[in-house]
Amino acid sequence: MPHLSRRAFLASTTGVTALAILHPFSARAQAGQVHLRLMETTDLHVHVFPYDYYSDKEVDTVGLARTAAHVKKIRAEATNSLLLDNGDFLQGNPMGDYIAYERGMKEGDTHPIITAMNTVGIEASTLGNHEFNYGLDFLMKSLAGADFPVVSANVAKTKGGTPRQDETLVPPYVILDRELTDGAGEAHPIRIGVIGFVPPQIMNWDRQHLEGRVEARDIVEAARAWVPQMREEGADIVIALSHSGIGAAEHEEGMENAAVPLAGVEGIDGLMTGHSHLVFPSPDYEGFAGTDVSAGTIQGKPAVMSGFWGSHLGVIDLMLERDGGEWRVVTTESSTRPIYERGEDRSVTPTVESVEPVLASVREEHEATLAYVRRAVGQTEAPLYSYFALVADDPSVQIVSNAQSWYIAQMMQGTEHEGLPILSAAAPFKAGGRGGPDYYTDVPAGDIAIKNVADLYLYPNTVRAVKVTGAQVREWLERSAGMFNRIEPGATDATLLNPDFPSYNFDVMDGVSYRIDLSQPARYDADGNLANEEAHRIVDLTFEGEPIDEAQEFIVATNNYRAGGGGNFPGATAETTVFEAPDTNRDVIVRYILDQGTISPSADANWRFAPMEDTTVLFDTGPAASAYLEDVKGVEIEETGETLDGFSRFRIRL
């Protein structure tokens, strides 16, 4: 089926050039000049159908089947084009979990996202960090079905003295031999080098899968080694697939978001970025050092980042000129094409329709995924929602904490740690932000299905336990409290939330009680670095009704991401880890619900903001939050109106 579908898709993209409006580059190209149009998908996360499996409904904001419509049109607009993918395709929605945990990947199987990418005609890809979530064996079996090369230059099975001596997990790069047609209709050969990179933080995020099996190098270090070799092997131009976001301009060893210093590596002609789930060029990156949003360049080189889940297709237009037997870049342009537009009234209008051969290629797996996510595993007496998870104790986080504590209590029995008090740290994953005003957990009272558990816990993390002291518990919570801006006493309608602080780093700790003093500056910055040594936002921290003993030892239930150093939380390290579970947090939640039969996950308000007289703050959340306003404990809150981007705004009286 995949090959038939691909032929159907490709056939539907041919024979239409005469109907397309030519890009100015194509119109201006002369003899010896060619217009090459590079296309990017990134962070697909198994989204093929325009479908939200968590809410079990069709949507117009996701899906490679929709992005494929832009690919068809681009191929019609440009005589010469190349379609590349920038990683994070293998994990991220229930279809990915269904394949990994239910159907499995036997030798010879093709993963549905690979099938869809084959159908669309991806010509090369790189590995993203989420490719490693299900382990290396699963990854390599999945890649075996790809009709396109997958490259990554900074992940090695065996490290050598230099990157060029590494035995890389997959090829570090590929050189694609193509023929380009110039403005006079003549064909010219060109060798296009494609190299890929992934954040070296994979060694923390998926330590249980990778430790002892692979090692990761610094992105820029690897690029400086491999790009010259690509040129030596005859690459006329080099495109970097950087599954790494646009961050600081200065290079630091091991940096996660290295796109800006990477663009500065000599020999790279263009950059495709991802990982951050944002769009470049766009106002999101105005003022970033090394970037030029109006020109669509990073370090003067064309660059693009095309959103996430198929929301956009990224496009880099190159005018190339043949000069003395070599190709050189004359002019560039970068842009993105969205699959939908959001109106001022919050409505979503699709800009394209799904391409049927892409849907058909994975329809069987789509139907199987629907059956998988609809299975009931228990009941809840109370609704589970995350609309207020960043401002008050919350039922959607509470159920995760309860399940983790229940599980770790069993796992500690018979060990040297039995009898130590167990705390549980959990963070809200779906809390709006860049995900938009609909990106919240909202499970009504009644049956709980697997789709609801996946909605409560988005990632296939595994459970871990760390042993920490009371002092480290305090510092852990101080790190979490960086979620909030500093608020001046007496302020009116100050902005509460720090937009640079991701919700998955806002750990709530169950088993202790505490208040957060917003009049203090954050002790830690958004990256977890100690920023204000004298500041202490966590006050009235108690355990069993008494001030916490900072020397007492505690077991904290968490996940492999946090225990492996993810988020840089004090006390959460490989050295403090005392238990590594074979079970995912999701599986533990399912088992907990099955064990309880019926759950009543009401929040216990064990944390709240310290009072500040005559002070109000504002925060934005999903419009459906209004229905649960009366259930919020420990905070005085009221709705004030709507925002232009579809959120509802609420006021808290501190």
From TrEMBL:
One of its GO terms (molecular function) is metal ion binding. Residues 1-29 form the signal peptide. The keyword Nucleotide-binding applies. Residues 37-277 form the Calcineurin-like phosphoesterase domain. The lineage of its organism: Bacteria, Pseudomonadati, Pseudomonadota, Alphaproteobacteria, Rhodobacterales. Belongs to the 5'-nucleotidase family. It comes from Roseivivax halodurans JCM 10272. Keywords: Hydrolase, Metal-binding, Nucleotide-binding, Signal. This is 2', 3'-cyclic nucleotide 2'-phosphodiesterase. GO terms for cellular component: outer membrane-bounded periplasmic space. It holds the Pfam family 5_nucleotid_C. The keyword Hydrolase applies. Transmembrane segments: none annotated. Residues 441-570 form the 5'-Nucleotidase C-terminal domain. GO terms for biological process: nucleotide catabolic process. CDD domains: MPP_CpdB_N.
